[in-house]
Amino acid sequence: MTTIRQRRVGKGTEAAEDQPSEETNVKPDGKILPGPPGGKLWNILSITVGGIVAISLGLLTSVYVATLHENDLWFSNIKEVEREISFRTECGLYYSYYKQMVQAASIQQGLHGLVYDNKTESVRTINILERMNVYQEVFLSILYRILPIQQYLEPVYFYIYTLFGLQAVYVIALYVTSWLLSGTWLSGLLAACWYITNRVDTTRVEFTIPLRENWALPFFAVQIAAITYLLRTHLQPAQERLALMAVFIATFLFSLTWQFNQFMMLIQALALFILDCLDMLPTAKVTWLYIIQISALLLVCVLQFFNSMILGSLLISFNVSVLIARTIQKNLKKGGLLSRLGKLILHVLLVLCLTLLINKFIKKILNLESDEHIFKFLKAKFGFGATRDFDANLYLCEEAFGLLPLNTFSRLSSTLLFYVYGFVLFLLTVAAVIVAFRNLSGSNQVHFKEKKEEYAVTLKPDAAYSLVHTVLFGCLALSTMRMKYLWTSHMCVFASFGLCSAEVWKLILKCLHLYTSQRTQVIKYSVPIITLLYISFKFWPGIMDELSELREFYDPDTVELMNWIKSNTPNTAVFAGSMQLLAGVKLCTGRTLTNHPHYEDKNLRERTKQIYQIYAKRSPGEVHGILRSFGTDYVILEDSICYERRHSRGCRLRDLLDVANGHIMDGLGENEPDLKPSLYPRFCEEIKKNLPSYTMHFTRVFQNKTFHVYKLAKHK
Q: Region annotation Disordered: residue ranges (predicted)?
């Protein structure tokens, strides 16, 4: 298997930014009065310096992750096949389409090969552009072909440098979001530093480069920055239109580049829904955001040849339901506390019922079953009944889909990030509860006006959205470790905003009866600067050590396998095996596959379960018949799966197959009472004994310490 081994030698005071004060320089009609000339000049200087710092930090982050990637793999020195093997599992599958487009005789022929693909799934022709989110690979390959860079830059470097470049966009977007929330670019600097020093928990781009989230999350961060700007008060109509356009473009690009976009935006829509119900966001802007989400998703649906999974998404059903329910309940935000609460409960129930009805209707019409494995997984994960479903258990047993490990919090705490985040979260949550209660009370609004304003300065619409956003995505991260990158990056923004916000410190000091304007300004700048100095002194030596540590890629068994396949099998040969390995087979050799890691298709999931019978207790005749039904010429068996020890009993792949087949699992431990012993031994173990019942169907043609390749007999 792939390993990394040690490399062998020889081979000052700052203006309050451009955000106008909520309390001064505003006419009764909402227009902003011009400030003094000196203040405007200082404001421009502050924005210029802050912008330069943002761009510099973004570029430094790109160089940083690119250097780590090079140092870990010695990417510039290894062979092409080793570079391609380093794109593990589904990463290799996505990169293979970029390689296919670059190597095609023409752009038109390359596109035709994707639309009518018969090498990704044997005996089937599928539309890759419909099934997978690979438009970024298509765009990048076309760009590489038309730019005069072929003589200077290899295709693989153009690809990975683009992904590392997107990290600059990501960091700049986080920086700008924090800046907008707090009113000072010092907050953006702190957010970027926290992102870099917590790299283990904020990104994994340096070792999973082509992963869809590494394309999508920078655009998601840009979208959040645009929403933060949109939710500011006193925007001019032109500024509002520009912000809406930025939100739409970022939402569209995010949706186009990641198949899980609908679930992330559903959480975002829930945040908007909660805040709108509590009267903490302008309803008109929330409506626009709902419409933008629907429009972006429908546009992606068109580009993906009317992908039914998009049309049947919960996001579209939910957003449409909210808009319908709001039309029905026009007086939702009128009345006293009890009246408002009653209306809200009815509104939530109406939206929930409409969402389920619309979604069920769409799925019934489209006969949609592509995402059923996700709901089976969620049902089992949250304790709504045990399941023997193979696909659901495959997710449940993966560490990435388990609960967030506790050591994550110790790492985040070592940079002070989690401590600051927890403090700011508690403070703003209390403020949000008070503001929400007073908004719903209505009649108490005038009586509590003075106190409400004290809380409102720390909970403007953009801050309220950021609060609910971080809470909801925090819940997602706690339940599913793989989704932590959506939370931890925003955690950096939220914590730095709280630490650098004059409104937050003003509220704290007033609660302690210590408030003065000068004291607030001193604390606003001194605390973040001290935090930055602490981070720099503590983590700079570690970063330098990390950058100086040199390793190299080392996976001789997989390299030997790929070279053997290219040299000893016909180009039309069909290979069966594990999803993860076959992605590499397609990328490195171009051979046809029986299955692959892109799991969002019911037929593929059923096919994968059948192919995986090579690791179950089945007869050689049955396994041969299954494999030949998919046109298989060669099957690859992996010792790391057949004799797996990474997972505990009950979560090994062979255990999942045994339970799904109704067989007793291997080893000591309990079995469910209705499971029976199998009539046959485990196929992947027994085939190595070269018994006549096996050799009549399978002939071993390749073997090393990790892999065994068998050629299938073609019985008439």
A: 1-32
